[in-house]
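We modelled the chain as a single entity of 188 amino acids. Its sequence is:
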Amino acid sequence: MPKSKSPATEPKEEKNEMCPKCGSPLSPVTETPTGKRLQRCSAGSWNPQTRQTEGCDYVKWLETPPQTLEENCPKCGAPLLMITTRFGKKAKKCSTSGWDREAKKATGCDYIEWINSTVRQELDEDCPQCGSKLVMVTTANGKKMKKCSTSGWDRATKQATGCTYIQWLNDNRPSMNNGDENFPSEPI
């Protein structure tokens, strides 16, 4: 998708603001893997191993500005914008759309196209449970898994269908060790 930034959508440099909790300056703006922008207190830091903040835990979340695309709206012909919701979902929407707070109604063109960031690749491996082919799925958050090509989801019954084989490949969460790894596997 070709993107071009207009002056209205350029991110503004944040001023040297101070942390309201401890008075330390805020660190430079950083971006999460899902595209959210934030500023942390310089007296605190995120530890990815423990998945906790060490020091001051103040975080200022910044609004992600929409990006103007080189595509036009199929309904009205106005330029499209790429937006990111507060939950990290991405969508193309018409630049003429808006929200009237007083009337509590949408205004302008109502075109919106949600972007499905899941990538699916066929693999040359067989499922160990049913023998069908496996597929590699990369989620919107960048997590990868191998799963059976026969697996699916029935929205009406809210249940999984087909084979249930899944193997996560890059699960970087810390392992929940219970201490058994320190004991020998064979009885002495």
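As a brief sanity check on the tokenised model: The chain has three domains: 20-62, 67-114, 119-168. Confidence is low (pLDDT under 50) at residues 1-14, 173-180.
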